[in-house]
Amino acid sequence: MTAVLETEHLSLQFGGVNALSDLSIQIEAGSLHAIIGPNGAGKTSFFNCLTGYYKPTSGAVRFRGSEVTGLDAAKVAGLGIRRTFQNIRVFPKMSVLENVLAGGHLRATANLFSITVASPGFRRNERQLRSEAMSSLEFVGLADQWNNLAGDLPYGMRKRMELARVLIADPVVVLLDEPAAGVSSVEREELSRVIQRIHAQGTCVIMIEHDVDLVMEIATEVTVLDNGRIIASGLPQDVRNNPDVIRAYMGRKRK
Amino acid sequence: MAMVETVSRGRAKLDGFRAMRGGLVLAVVVLGALIPQMTQNQYYLGVAFQAEMLMCLALGLNIVVGYAGMLDLGFAAFFAIGAYTTGILSTKEHWSILASIAPGVVIAVVCALIIGFPTLRLRSDYLAVVTLGFGEIIQTIAINLNQTGGPTGIYAIPALTLGSVVVTSNTGYYYVFFVLVIVFALFSTRLRGSRLGRAWLCIREDEDAAKAMGINTNHYKLYAYVFGAVLGSITGSLYAPALTAISPASFGFSESLLIVMAVAIGGLGSIWGVMFGAAVVEIFPEVFRSFAQARLLVFGVLLVILMVVRPRGLFPERAFQGMATRVRRRLGRAAVGPGPSAGHVVLTVPTEES
Question: ipTM of this model?
Answer without folding.
Answer: 0.91
